[in-house]
Amino acid sequence: MAAQEAVDTVRDREIGVEQEHLDQVYRRLEEKIHEAEFLMNDAAQRGHVGTPGALAERDAQVFRAGIHLNRLNNEFEDFLFGRIDLLYGKDGEKGPDGAYTSVEPAEDALRADDSGTYAEIGETLHIGRIGVLDADYAPLVIDWRAPAAAPFYRSTPVDPGRVVRRRVIRSKGRKVLGVEDDLMRPELTATLDGHELAVIGDGALMAALGQARSHTMRDIVSSIQAEQDLVIRAPAASVTYVEGGPGTGKTAVALHRAAYLLYQDRRRYSGGILIVSPTPLLVSYTEGVLPSLGEEGQVAIRALGSLVDGAEADAYDEPAVARVKGSSRMLAVLRKAARGALETPAPKAVQAELGDEEDEGGTAAPQGTPTLLRVVAFNRRLELNADELKRIRHNVLGGTAPVNLLRPRARRLLLDALYTKSGAAGRHSDPQLAAELRSSFDEDVSTEDSFLSFLDAWWPELTPRRVLDAMADEKRLGRWARRVLNPGETRRLARSLRRPGLSVHDVALLDELATLLGTQARPRKKREYDPLDQLTGLEELMPVREETQRERAERLAAERVEYAHVIVDEAQDLTPMQWRMVGRRGRHATWTVVGDPAQSSWSDPDEAAAARDEALGTRPRRRFELTVNYRNPAEIAELAAKVLALAMPGKESPRAVRSTGVEPRFVALAEPGTAAMAAAVRAEAERLLGEVDGTVGVVVAMDRRKQAAGWLGGLGDRVVALGSLEAKGLEYDATVVVSPAEIADESPAGLRVLYVALTRSTQALTVIAGERDLPDADGVPDLLRD
Ligand SMILES: Nc1ncnc2c1ncn2[C@@H]1O[C@H](COP(=O)(O)OP(=O)(O)OP(=O)(O)O)[C@@H](O)[C@H]1O
């Protein structure tokens, strides 16, 4: 009892110490807010001066002060989270943020005698979401992304550097709630201001991992681990390539890396950072993290189905179709289609008003390409017949230039042919007169209505959507796909393109078509001229205040064709066609690519890897591996490892850091059929809702998605039903995986998809075995038995 009281006293004292520091930081922040407010008022006053120079200066001041205030207000909550106590450093030099920069301790920092090793703490640093200096420019808080903060993340007991004690501080508003310490040099007796260094708690990481999950990811800024920090701070020279199993923090690391890169070189990354995620669900799950890291507008998080402007797809094709659409064989088909579509009938909307770009798809009355051009020039009727037109078209299409960009050439060759027919060609021997005659001919003919409407029908301005719609006709597609796709693939592809709406895989086809057609990139919406752009410099180019982070990101994304840095999450899932689409957005970018081949839902990982290599070009790569699973307890990780052994024999599982003592539960259906499955799923979901504080995910085969949502009706929003492909990247406190066999049989990559499903839970897992799972007496499906 007495011992516990002593611990509590030490804990309270340490909390008190941190509270004092936090109070000091808040006082300083308040001063800064007052300063910012003063600046704003002062600037407003100056408005009365009235000279143009004074007005511009006022505007600049208001702008800066507004940004400052905004930032301070935003960062006010929970922004001080760490502290390190360091040995004296090797050199006495201070870095630009006022902190010592040396990583290694000074030679005389440690004293050893027969009874042990001793040291005096030479420096204490507090780490937070932004840096705060006191009035004398000494650091009260160091920004987590600053070099001086790196030891907070890098130091480990094996390689402690100067760090003796690493402390995570939990606070709410202005109140410090607790501290958790990790000792990096447990063998050392260290003193701080003459007192022995206190150590509180069992370490911050375990405390963080034990918390209940919500529907959004939280940032891990206070508990980033050393191997993760190496990735986050890796120099952005070329391609940073990260592999790691489920739950190793790949997504978290990728998001924190975006924040780090912006901090480190805001000027460079004002060109934008694009984060590509496989599904909209993962986008909304991760979206909360960046603003909370203190980043604004420059980062766009996009799902693969929303990467192309105007396309917003979240429907999935059946695996056999997705395989065809994603394959690089599609390139040959699209090349043919982009040219062949010139001869296809215009959709109704286009027919109604030729030249109208509005393209709604659908099948039109087969108008087809015109086979006769008739004009009147020099008082003569001139005609080009079907054969002549065909020859001209063939001629124009000779090279590989984008079809829409060939229209002027088509127009010229038509005029050439008509001119030859007119007999005017040899009329003048004087070249100048001949040229004049020709140009008046061209002008007459090319402004004639019959010529113009012919050209629109014969060489229409094609949109990617129109070509894709044209591919929905099986016979036509068969021609374009000859010797590339087999008849079954062609049939399935055409059928899927006849369905209304776009699938996620269609979007990459649209993007490829846009390139093949040479569709003009949408003109950049020019930002309104703002005199402050010149006054404030790029660092200060922060969002206009009334625009939200998301709105700004969307606007920038819409305007942007390419980005300065591209981060690809779940990279193992990009098809070759998707790699091409993403690659076009980062031709001059640096890249961070994170993924796990063992979770790939793509049936031909080698083909996808080849396309990835093409997208990344010859840029040098730095490879990193993440090896620790922070999500799953060991009990769940062990079960998932059985599926990994089937899916990818020899592939190692990441090491789980914690164990809950709760084994996964198995439930077999009381009787065959959907009703029994519905009852079992609902009962398990209800039970788990009672067991965990956070969220419950029910993962089913893709074609049971809607059904499963119905089974869970009325259970509230802590529980969600997901198709197996949608579960990627997400996590829940508890999951119910329904019929492993159904998930595994869904596609050639089914076992890897099942592996994903089994690795979503942070606490509890129930597996419900259907008939096809052949459960044993304990309800364990055959796929999960030893
Ligand atoms: N250093 C850390 N401290 C606390 N939590 C962490 C840390 N690293 C990762 N996590 C948590 O572990 C979970 C898994 O992280 P994340 O989703 O980034 O992993 P992943 O490698 O992308 O997984 P998957 O491949 O399954 O999508 C998240 O809840 C994340 O917040």
TrEMBL record:
Domain UvrD-like helicase ATP-binding: 223-633
SUPFAM superfamilies attached to this UniProt entry: P-loop containing nucleoside triphosphate hydrolases
Gene3D superfamilies given in the database record: P-loop containing nucleotide triphosphate hydrolases
Entry annotated with the keyword Lipoprotein: no
InterPro entries attached to this UniProt entry: (+)RNA_virus_helicase_core_dom, DNA_helicase_UvrD/REP, P-loop_NTPase, UvrD-like_ATP-bd
Keyword field: ATP-binding, Helicase, Hydrolase, Nucleotide-binding
A GO cellular-component term linked to this record: cytosol
Hydrolase listed as a keyword: yes
Binding site for ATP: G244, G245, P246, G247, T248, G249, K250, T251
Region (Disordered): 345-368
Top-level taxonomic group: Bacteria
Pfam families named among the record's database cross-references: Viral_helicase1 (PF01443)
Gene Ontology process terms (BP): recombinational repair
GO molecular function, one term: 3'-5' DNA helicase activity
Protein's UniProt name: ATP-dependent helicase
Origin organism lineage: Bacteria, Bacillati, Actinomycetota, Actinomycetes, Kitasatosporales
